[in-house]
Amino acid sequence: MTASTANTCAPSGARVVLVSPYELGRQPFNLAQPAAWFGRVDIAVACVDLAQQKLDPATFAHAEFVAIYLGMHTATRIAAAALPKIRALAPHARIAAFGLYAPVNAAWLKGLGVEAIFGGESEPDLLAWVQSGVAPADTVVRHSKIEFLLPERRGLPELQRYAKLILADDTQKITGFAEASRGCKHLCRHCPVVPVYEGKFRVVPVEIVLADIAQQVAVGAAHISFGDPDFLNGPTHALKVAEALHARFPDLTWDATIKVEHLLNHAELLPRLKQCGLLFIVTAVESVDDAILDKLAKGHTHADFETALAHCRALGIALAPTFVPFTPWTTLAGYRELLVTLLKLNLVEAVPPVQLAIRLLVPQGSYLLHLPEFAARVGAFDDAMLGYPWQADDPRVDALQADIMAWVMDAEKVALPRAEVFAGLWARTHTALGEAAPPLDPAQFGAPIPHHSEPWYCCAEPTETQLASF
User: Fold this and answer.
1) CA of 16: how far to CAs of 126, 210, 290, 395, in Å?
2) Domains along the chain with CATH numbers
Protein backbone atom coordinates (compact mmCIF):
# COMPACT_ATOMS: atom_id res chain seq x y z
CA MET A 1 0.00 0.00 0.00
CA THR A 2 1.26 3.40 -0.95
CA ALA A 3 0.29 6.77 0.46
CA SER A 4 0.07 9.65 -1.98
CA THR A 5 1.98 12.63 -0.65
CA ALA A 6 2.20 15.06 -3.57
CA ASN A 7 -0.41 17.75 -3.97
CA THR A 8 -1.73 16.63 -7.36
CA CYS A 9 -4.46 19.20 -7.87
CA ALA A 10 -3.84 21.83 -10.52
CA PRO A 11 -7.26 23.38 -11.26
CA SER A 12 -6.10 25.85 -13.91
CA GLY A 13 -3.79 23.46 -15.76
CA ALA A 14 -5.28 20.06 -15.19
CA ARG A 15 -4.95 17.39 -17.85
CA VAL A 16 -7.65 15.32 -16.14
CA VAL A 17 -10.79 16.67 -14.46
CA LEU A 18 -12.72 14.41 -12.08
CA VAL A 19 -16.34 15.40 -11.51
CA SER A 20 -18.73 14.31 -8.77
CA PRO A 21 -22.33 15.47 -9.37
CA TYR A 22 -23.54 14.51 -5.90
CA GLU A 23 -22.54 12.21 -3.02
CA LEU A 24 -25.01 12.54 -0.16
CA GLY A 25 -23.50 15.70 1.31
CA ARG A 26 -20.14 14.03 1.79
CA GLN A 27 -16.70 15.04 0.56
CA PRO A 28 -16.23 12.53 -2.27
CA PHE A 29 -13.88 9.68 -1.47
CA ASN A 30 -14.46 8.51 -5.03
CA LEU A 31 -12.78 11.58 -6.46
CA ALA A 32 -10.01 11.64 -3.88
CA GLN A 33 -8.98 8.02 -4.52
CA PRO A 34 -8.49 8.30 -8.32
CA ALA A 35 -6.88 11.71 -7.80
CA ALA A 36 -4.21 9.92 -5.75
CA TRP A 37 -3.65 7.41 -8.55
CA PHE A 38 -3.11 10.17 -11.11
CA GLY A 39 -0.93 12.12 -8.71
CA ARG A 40 1.37 9.17 -8.13
CA VAL A 41 2.40 9.27 -11.80
CA ASP A 42 2.48 13.09 -11.96
CA ILE A 43 -0.63 13.57 -14.08
CA ALA A 44 -2.16 16.93 -13.20
CA VAL A 45 -5.73 16.49 -12.02
CA ALA A 46 -8.52 18.77 -10.79
CA CYS A 47 -11.56 17.71 -8.78
CA VAL A 48 -14.98 19.33 -9.13
CA ASP A 49 -17.82 18.58 -6.74
CA LEU A 50 -21.03 19.93 -8.26
CA ALA A 51 -22.74 19.68 -4.88
CA GLN A 52 -20.47 22.51 -3.72
CA GLN A 53 -19.00 24.09 -6.85
CA LYS A 54 -20.03 25.42 -10.23
CA LEU A 55 -18.48 24.43 -13.55
CA ASP A 56 -15.63 26.92 -13.82
CA PRO A 57 -14.23 27.48 -17.34
CA ALA A 58 -10.72 27.84 -15.92
CA THR A 59 -10.83 24.31 -14.50
CA PHE A 60 -11.61 22.78 -17.89
CA ALA A 61 -9.43 25.07 -20.02
CA HIS A 62 -6.64 22.50 -20.51
CA ALA A 63 -8.59 19.30 -19.85
CA GLU A 64 -7.85 16.40 -22.17
CA PHE A 65 -9.91 13.89 -20.15
CA VAL A 66 -12.99 14.27 -17.97
CA ALA A 67 -14.20 11.41 -15.75
CA ILE A 68 -17.60 11.71 -14.05
CA TYR A 69 -18.37 9.70 -10.94
CA LEU A 70 -21.89 8.20 -11.02
CA GLY A 71 -22.33 6.59 -7.64
CA MET A 72 -26.09 7.00 -7.44
CA HIS A 73 -29.24 7.86 -9.37
CA THR A 74 -29.32 11.52 -8.35
CA ALA A 75 -25.72 11.96 -9.49
CA THR A 76 -26.53 10.37 -12.85
CA ARG A 77 -29.50 12.65 -13.47
CA ILE A 78 -27.40 15.70 -12.59
CA ALA A 79 -24.58 14.47 -14.83
CA ALA A 80 -26.95 14.17 -17.79
CA ALA A 81 -27.93 17.81 -17.38
CA ALA A 82 -24.33 18.91 -16.82
CA LEU A 83 -22.78 17.09 -19.78
CA PRO A 84 -23.71 19.73 -22.42
CA LYS A 85 -22.07 22.41 -20.29
CA ILE A 86 -18.96 20.27 -19.78
CA ARG A 87 -18.81 19.69 -23.54
CA ALA A 88 -19.00 23.44 -24.14
CA LEU A 89 -16.21 24.13 -21.63
CA ALA A 90 -13.93 21.34 -22.87
CA PRO A 91 -14.98 20.61 -26.48
CA HIS A 92 -11.92 18.49 -27.22
CA ALA A 93 -11.84 16.53 -23.96
CA ARG A 94 -12.62 12.83 -23.94
CA ILE A 95 -15.22 11.80 -21.40
CA ALA A 96 -15.60 8.72 -19.21
CA ALA A 97 -18.07 7.70 -16.52
CA PHE A 98 -17.36 5.47 -13.54
CA GLY A 99 -19.18 4.27 -10.43
CA LEU A 100 -22.22 2.08 -9.75
CA TYR A 101 -24.56 3.81 -12.17
CA ALA A 102 -22.08 3.93 -15.06
CA PRO A 103 -22.07 0.26 -16.20
CA VAL A 104 -25.84 -0.20 -15.83
CA ASN A 105 -26.46 2.91 -17.96
CA ALA A 106 -23.66 2.24 -20.45
CA ALA A 107 -25.74 2.36 -23.63
CA TRP A 108 -27.49 5.56 -22.57
CA LEU A 109 -24.18 7.20 -21.62
CA LYS A 110 -22.60 6.23 -24.94
CA GLY A 111 -25.51 7.97 -26.63
CA LEU A 112 -24.57 11.13 -24.74
CA GLY A 113 -21.02 10.98 -26.05
CA VAL A 114 -19.34 9.24 -23.12
CA GLU A 115 -16.61 7.10 -24.65
CA ALA A 116 -15.42 4.96 -21.73
CA ILE A 117 -17.44 3.26 -18.99
CA PHE A 118 -15.86 1.81 -15.85
CA GLY A 119 -17.32 0.04 -12.83
CA GLY A 120 -16.10 -1.69 -9.68
CA GLU A 121 -12.52 -0.85 -8.75
CA SER A 122 -12.12 1.71 -11.53
CA GLU A 123 -8.88 3.49 -10.64
CA PRO A 124 -6.42 1.31 -12.64
CA ASP A 125 -8.68 1.46 -15.70
CA LEU A 126 -9.16 5.22 -15.51
CA LEU A 127 -5.39 5.61 -15.33
CA ALA A 128 -4.81 3.21 -18.25
CA TRP A 129 -7.38 5.11 -20.34
CA VAL A 130 -5.57 8.40 -19.79
CA GLN A 131 -2.06 6.99 -20.23
CA SER A 132 -2.85 5.04 -23.41
CA GLY A 133 -5.40 7.39 -24.90
CA VAL A 134 -7.35 4.31 -25.96
CA ALA A 135 -10.93 3.81 -24.82
CA PRO A 136 -11.97 0.19 -24.17
CA ALA A 137 -14.44 -1.13 -26.72
CA ASP A 138 -16.72 -2.49 -24.00
CA THR A 139 -17.72 -1.51 -20.49
CA VAL A 140 -15.04 -2.48 -17.98
CA VAL A 141 -16.16 -3.78 -14.57
CA ARG A 142 -13.21 -4.74 -12.39
CA HIS A 143 -13.79 -7.09 -9.45
CA SER A 144 -10.16 -7.89 -8.72
CA LYS A 145 -8.32 -6.40 -5.76
CA ILE A 146 -6.51 -3.14 -6.31
CA GLU A 147 -4.00 -1.10 -4.37
CA PHE A 148 -5.70 1.62 -2.34
CA LEU A 149 -3.76 4.85 -1.90
CA LEU A 150 -4.14 7.64 0.60
CA PRO A 151 -7.02 9.68 -0.91
CA GLU A 152 -5.94 13.08 -2.25
CA ARG A 153 -8.49 15.43 -0.69
CA ARG A 154 -6.64 18.73 -0.92
CA GLY A 155 -8.24 19.64 -4.24
CA LEU A 156 -11.77 19.27 -2.87
CA PRO A 157 -13.90 21.95 -1.19
CA GLU A 158 -13.23 22.41 2.52
CA LEU A 159 -14.69 19.81 4.83
CA GLN A 160 -16.65 22.48 6.68
CA ARG A 161 -18.83 23.00 3.59
CA TYR A 162 -20.26 19.48 3.71
CA ALA A 163 -23.03 17.92 5.81
CA LYS A 164 -22.41 18.15 9.54
CA LEU A 165 -23.36 15.91 12.41
CA ILE A 166 -26.23 17.36 14.44
CA LEU A 167 -26.38 16.01 17.98
CA ALA A 168 -29.56 15.55 20.01
CA ASP A 169 -28.96 18.91 21.71
CA ASP A 170 -28.62 20.64 18.31
CA THR A 171 -24.88 21.18 18.63
CA GLN A 172 -22.90 20.37 15.50
CA LYS A 173 -19.68 18.58 14.59
CA ILE A 174 -17.66 18.86 11.40
CA THR A 175 -17.94 15.46 9.75
CA GLY A 176 -15.42 13.55 7.68
CA PHE A 177 -16.18 10.70 5.32
CA ALA A 178 -14.21 7.47 4.90
CA GLU A 179 -14.59 4.08 3.26
CA ALA A 180 -13.32 0.88 4.83
CA SER A 181 -14.69 -1.33 2.06
CA ARG A 182 -16.39 -1.25 -1.33
CA GLY A 183 -19.10 -3.49 -2.73
CA CYS A 184 -21.33 -5.86 -0.76
CA LYS A 185 -21.60 -9.61 -0.32
CA HIS A 186 -25.41 -9.48 -0.24
CA LEU A 187 -27.84 -9.56 -3.17
CA CYS A 188 -30.77 -7.38 -2.11
CA ARG A 189 -32.84 -7.16 -5.28
CA HIS A 190 -33.41 -3.41 -5.27
CA CYS A 191 -29.85 -2.37 -4.40
CA PRO A 192 -27.73 -0.58 -7.06
CA VAL A 193 -24.53 -2.17 -5.69
CA VAL A 194 -25.63 -5.66 -6.69
CA PRO A 195 -25.61 -5.46 -10.53
CA VAL A 196 -22.02 -4.19 -10.48
CA TYR A 197 -20.38 -6.07 -7.60
CA GLU A 198 -22.50 -9.25 -7.84
CA GLY A 199 -21.97 -10.22 -4.20
CA LYS A 200 -18.31 -9.25 -3.97
CA PHE A 201 -16.67 -6.67 -1.72
CA ARG A 202 -13.16 -5.31 -1.25
CA VAL A 203 -11.59 -3.96 1.92
CA VAL A 204 -9.45 -0.84 2.16
CA PRO A 205 -6.32 -1.56 4.25
CA VAL A 206 -6.61 -0.40 7.85
CA GLU A 207 -3.54 1.82 7.61
CA ILE A 208 -4.98 3.67 4.58
CA VAL A 209 -8.35 4.14 6.32
CA LEU A 210 -6.61 5.54 9.38
CA ALA A 211 -4.34 7.82 7.39
CA ASP A 212 -7.35 9.15 5.48
CA ILE A 213 -9.22 9.83 8.71
CA ALA A 214 -6.13 11.48 10.20
CA GLN A 215 -5.88 13.98 7.35
CA GLN A 216 -9.55 14.87 7.84
CA VAL A 217 -9.14 15.24 11.61
CA ALA A 218 -6.22 17.56 10.91
CA VAL A 219 -8.59 19.96 9.11
CA GLY A 220 -11.31 19.85 11.73
CA ALA A 221 -13.30 16.60 11.51
CA ALA A 222 -14.72 15.62 14.91
CA HIS A 223 -16.93 12.80 13.59
CA ILE A 224 -16.47 10.28 10.77
CA SER A 225 -19.21 8.79 8.62
CA PHE A 226 -18.29 5.48 6.99
CA GLY A 227 -19.76 5.17 3.51
CA ASP A 228 -19.40 1.41 3.11
CA PRO A 229 -22.55 -0.22 1.70
CA ASP A 230 -22.31 -2.38 4.83
CA PHE A 231 -19.66 -1.84 7.51
CA LEU A 232 -19.96 -5.45 8.74
CA ASN A 233 -19.53 -7.19 5.39
CA GLY A 234 -16.14 -8.12 6.79
CA PRO A 235 -16.65 -8.10 10.58
CA THR A 236 -13.02 -8.86 11.45
CA HIS A 237 -11.79 -6.03 9.24
CA ALA A 238 -14.45 -3.67 10.61
CA LEU A 239 -13.41 -4.36 14.19
CA LYS A 240 -9.75 -3.76 13.33
CA VAL A 241 -10.67 -0.42 11.76
CA ALA A 242 -12.79 0.59 14.76
CA GLU A 243 -10.16 -0.37 17.31
CA ALA A 244 -7.35 1.35 15.41
CA LEU A 245 -9.51 4.46 15.03
CA HIS A 246 -10.31 4.58 18.72
CA ALA A 247 -6.70 3.96 19.75
CA ARG A 248 -5.48 6.89 17.67
CA PHE A 249 -8.44 9.25 18.17
CA PRO A 250 -10.16 8.25 21.42
CA ASP A 251 -12.56 11.22 21.34
CA LEU A 252 -13.65 10.77 17.73
CA THR A 253 -17.20 9.49 17.16
CA TRP A 254 -18.39 7.75 14.02
CA ASP A 255 -21.38 6.21 12.29
CA ALA A 256 -21.82 3.40 9.77
CA THR A 257 -24.41 1.61 7.67
CA ILE A 258 -25.14 -1.95 8.82
CA LYS A 259 -27.80 -4.43 7.69
CA VAL A 260 -30.42 -5.62 10.17
CA GLU A 261 -29.22 -9.14 9.43
CA HIS A 262 -25.68 -8.23 10.49
CA LEU A 263 -26.88 -6.43 13.61
CA LEU A 264 -28.35 -9.75 14.72
CA ASN A 265 -25.68 -12.13 13.41
CA HIS A 266 -22.82 -10.03 14.83
CA ALA A 267 -24.59 -8.71 17.92
CA GLU A 268 -21.57 -9.63 20.05
CA LEU A 269 -19.46 -7.02 18.22
CA LEU A 270 -21.76 -4.10 18.93
CA PRO A 271 -20.64 -3.44 22.54
CA ARG A 272 -17.03 -3.22 21.38
CA LEU A 273 -17.93 -0.95 18.45
CA LYS A 274 -19.80 1.28 20.90
CA GLN A 275 -16.70 1.46 23.10
CA CYS A 276 -14.71 2.48 20.03
CA GLY A 277 -16.91 5.53 19.40
CA LEU A 278 -19.83 4.21 17.34
CA LEU A 279 -22.55 6.83 17.82
CA PHE A 280 -25.34 5.66 15.56
CA ILE A 281 -26.12 3.12 12.85
CA VAL A 282 -27.99 3.65 9.61
CA THR A 283 -29.86 0.48 8.69
CA ALA A 284 -31.90 -0.16 5.55
CA VAL A 285 -35.12 -1.54 6.99
CA GLU A 286 -36.98 -0.67 3.76
CA SER A 287 -40.39 -2.02 4.82
CA VAL A 288 -42.33 -3.35 7.81
CA ASP A 289 -44.25 -5.77 5.57
CA ASP A 290 -42.66 -9.23 5.57
CA ALA A 291 -44.01 -10.06 2.10
CA ILE A 292 -42.36 -6.97 0.62
CA LEU A 293 -39.12 -7.66 2.50
CA ASP A 294 -39.11 -11.12 0.93
CA LYS A 295 -39.55 -9.69 -2.57
CA LEU A 296 -36.64 -7.32 -1.93
CA ALA A 297 -34.53 -10.22 -0.58
CA LYS A 298 -33.56 -8.13 2.43
CA GLY A 299 -32.68 -11.08 4.66
CA HIS A 300 -34.66 -9.88 7.67
CA THR A 301 -38.22 -9.71 8.94
CA HIS A 302 -40.21 -7.03 10.74
CA ALA A 303 -39.62 -8.92 13.99
CA ASP A 304 -35.87 -8.98 13.29
CA PHE A 305 -35.90 -5.20 12.92
CA GLU A 306 -37.59 -4.74 16.28
CA THR A 307 -35.12 -7.13 17.91
CA ALA A 308 -32.13 -5.27 16.45
CA LEU A 309 -33.59 -1.93 17.53
CA ALA A 310 -34.09 -3.10 21.11
CA HIS A 311 -30.53 -4.46 21.26
CA CYS A 312 -28.99 -1.24 19.94
CA ARG A 313 -31.02 0.85 22.36
CA ALA A 314 -29.93 -1.33 25.27
CA LEU A 315 -26.32 -0.61 24.30
CA GLY A 316 -26.90 3.13 23.90
CA ILE A 317 -26.41 3.05 20.11
CA ALA A 318 -28.95 5.09 18.17
CA LEU A 319 -30.53 3.34 15.20
CA ALA A 320 -31.55 5.40 12.15
CA PRO A 321 -33.75 3.23 9.91
CA THR A 322 -34.20 4.02 6.23
CA PHE A 323 -37.13 2.96 4.07
CA VAL A 324 -38.38 2.52 0.53
CA PRO A 325 -42.04 2.81 1.55
CA PHE A 326 -43.65 3.05 -1.88
CA THR A 327 -43.33 -0.11 -3.95
CA PRO A 328 -45.64 -1.84 -6.44
CA TRP A 329 -46.91 -3.94 -3.53
CA THR A 330 -47.58 -1.08 -1.10
CA THR A 331 -51.21 -0.55 -0.03
CA LEU A 332 -52.72 2.44 1.73
CA ALA A 333 -53.26 0.28 4.80
CA GLY A 334 -49.66 -0.94 4.57
CA TYR A 335 -48.32 2.61 4.45
CA ARG A 336 -50.46 3.55 7.44
CA GLU A 337 -49.00 0.51 9.24
CA LEU A 338 -45.51 1.89 8.63
CA LEU A 339 -46.48 5.16 10.31
CA VAL A 340 -48.15 3.29 13.17
CA THR A 341 -44.98 1.21 13.61
CA LEU A 342 -42.82 4.34 13.88
CA LEU A 343 -45.12 5.62 16.59
CA LYS A 344 -45.17 2.31 18.44
CA LEU A 345 -41.36 2.12 18.36
CA ASN A 346 -40.87 5.83 19.20
CA LEU A 347 -38.94 6.39 15.95
CA VAL A 348 -40.58 9.48 14.48
CA GLU A 349 -37.66 11.71 15.45
CA ALA A 350 -35.15 9.12 14.18
CA VAL A 351 -36.39 9.03 10.57
CA PRO A 352 -35.78 11.87 8.09
CA PRO A 353 -39.19 12.62 6.56
CA VAL A 354 -37.87 12.09 3.02
CA GLN A 355 -37.42 8.42 3.97
CA LEU A 356 -41.20 8.17 4.20
CA ALA A 357 -41.72 9.59 0.71
CA ILE A 358 -39.34 7.57 -1.47
CA ARG A 359 -40.70 5.59 -4.40
CA LEU A 360 -38.86 2.42 -5.45
CA LEU A 361 -36.38 3.09 -8.25
CA VAL A 362 -35.78 0.27 -10.74
CA PRO A 363 -32.58 1.02 -12.70
CA GLN A 364 -31.06 -0.98 -15.53
CA GLY A 365 -29.73 -4.29 -14.25
CA SER A 366 -31.93 -4.34 -11.15
CA TYR A 367 -32.26 -7.82 -9.69
CA LEU A 368 -35.95 -7.07 -9.18
CA LEU A 369 -36.30 -7.84 -12.88
CA HIS A 370 -35.38 -11.44 -12.04
CA LEU A 371 -38.85 -11.75 -10.51
CA PRO A 372 -41.09 -12.75 -13.43
CA GLU A 373 -44.19 -11.20 -11.83
CA PHE A 374 -42.37 -7.92 -11.35
CA ALA A 375 -40.72 -7.88 -14.78
CA ALA A 376 -44.12 -8.39 -16.38
CA ARG A 377 -45.63 -5.35 -14.69
CA VAL A 378 -43.02 -2.67 -15.39
CA GLY A 379 -43.05 -0.49 -18.48
CA ALA A 380 -40.27 0.00 -21.01
CA PHE A 381 -37.10 1.61 -19.69
CA ASP A 382 -37.54 5.38 -19.53
CA ASP A 383 -34.38 7.31 -20.47
CA ALA A 384 -35.77 10.49 -18.94
CA MET A 385 -36.19 8.97 -15.48
CA LEU A 386 -33.38 6.42 -15.89
CA GLY A 387 -35.58 3.64 -14.63
CA TYR A 388 -38.39 1.24 -15.36
CA PRO A 389 -41.76 2.84 -14.63
CA TRP A 390 -44.35 1.03 -12.55
CA GLN A 391 -47.71 1.70 -10.96
CA ALA A 392 -49.19 0.45 -7.74
CA ASP A 393 -52.20 -1.83 -7.94
CA ASP A 394 -54.21 0.89 -6.24
CA PRO A 395 -53.83 4.26 -8.01
CA ARG A 396 -54.53 5.99 -4.70
CA VAL A 397 -51.11 4.77 -3.50
CA ASP A 398 -49.30 6.54 -6.35
CA ALA A 399 -51.34 9.68 -5.70
CA LEU A 400 -50.47 9.54 -2.00
CA GLN A 401 -46.77 9.16 -2.76
CA ALA A 402 -46.79 12.23 -5.00
CA ASP A 403 -48.69 14.21 -2.37
CA ILE A 404 -46.33 13.14 0.40
CA MET A 405 -43.17 13.86 -1.60
CA ALA A 406 -44.44 17.36 -2.40
CA TRP A 407 -45.29 17.92 1.27
CA VAL A 408 -41.90 16.72 2.47
CA MET A 409 -40.00 18.87 -0.05
CA ASP A 410 -42.02 21.96 0.89
CA ALA A 411 -41.48 21.25 4.58
CA GLU A 412 -37.73 20.83 4.03
CA LYS A 413 -37.50 24.27 2.40
CA VAL A 414 -38.76 25.93 5.59
CA ALA A 415 -36.95 23.53 7.97
CA LEU A 416 -40.16 22.24 9.52
CA PRO A 417 -39.49 19.97 12.55
CA ARG A 418 -39.78 16.25 11.92
CA ALA A 419 -42.74 15.93 14.28
CA GLU A 420 -44.73 18.50 12.31
CA VAL A 421 -43.86 16.86 8.99
CA PHE A 422 -44.95 13.50 10.37
CA ALA A 423 -48.26 15.00 11.46
CA GLY A 424 -48.79 16.10 7.87
CA LEU A 425 -48.03 12.59 6.61
CA TRP A 426 -50.43 11.13 9.16
CA ALA A 427 -53.25 13.43 8.08
CA ARG A 428 -52.68 12.86 4.36
CA THR A 429 -52.59 9.09 4.75
CA HIS A 430 -55.88 8.97 6.59
CA THR A 431 -57.46 11.34 4.10
CA ALA A 432 -56.41 8.97 1.30
CA LEU A 433 -58.05 6.14 3.24
CA GLY A 434 -61.21 8.19 3.66
CA GLU A 435 -60.84 8.10 7.43
CA ALA A 436 -60.51 10.63 10.21
CA ALA A 437 -56.92 10.78 11.49
CA PRO A 438 -56.66 9.71 15.14
CA PRO A 439 -54.96 12.32 17.34
CA LEU A 440 -51.21 11.96 17.71
CA ASP A 441 -49.50 11.62 21.08
CA PRO A 442 -46.16 13.49 20.99
CA ALA A 443 -44.92 11.16 23.72
CA GLN A 444 -44.75 8.45 21.03
CA PHE A 445 -42.44 10.44 18.76
CA GLY A 446 -39.30 9.49 20.66
CA ALA A 447 -36.24 11.57 21.39
CA PRO A 448 -34.10 13.15 18.65
CA ILE A 449 -31.02 11.14 17.72
CA PRO A 450 -27.73 12.27 16.18
CA HIS A 451 -28.09 12.73 12.44
CA HIS A 452 -26.50 14.40 9.44
CA SER A 453 -27.63 17.84 8.34
CA GLU A 454 -28.33 16.43 4.88
CA PRO A 455 -30.80 13.51 4.91
CA TRP A 456 -29.36 10.16 3.89
CA TYR A 457 -31.09 8.88 0.78
CA CYS A 458 -29.92 7.81 -2.63
CA CYS A 459 -32.88 6.88 -4.81
CA ALA A 460 -34.71 10.11 -5.49
CA GLU A 461 -34.89 12.70 -8.22
CA PRO A 462 -32.43 15.63 -8.00
CA THR A 463 -33.75 18.81 -6.45
CA GLU A 464 -33.89 22.20 -8.15
CA THR A 465 -31.01 23.34 -5.94
CA GLN A 466 -28.80 20.44 -7.09
CA LEU A 467 -29.57 21.05 -10.74
CA ALA A 468 -28.81 24.76 -10.34
CA SER A 469 -25.24 23.96 -9.30
CA PHE A 470 -24.08 24.01 -12.92
Assistant:
1) 10, 27, 48, 48
2) 16-142 (3.40.50.2300), 159-467 (3.80.30.20)
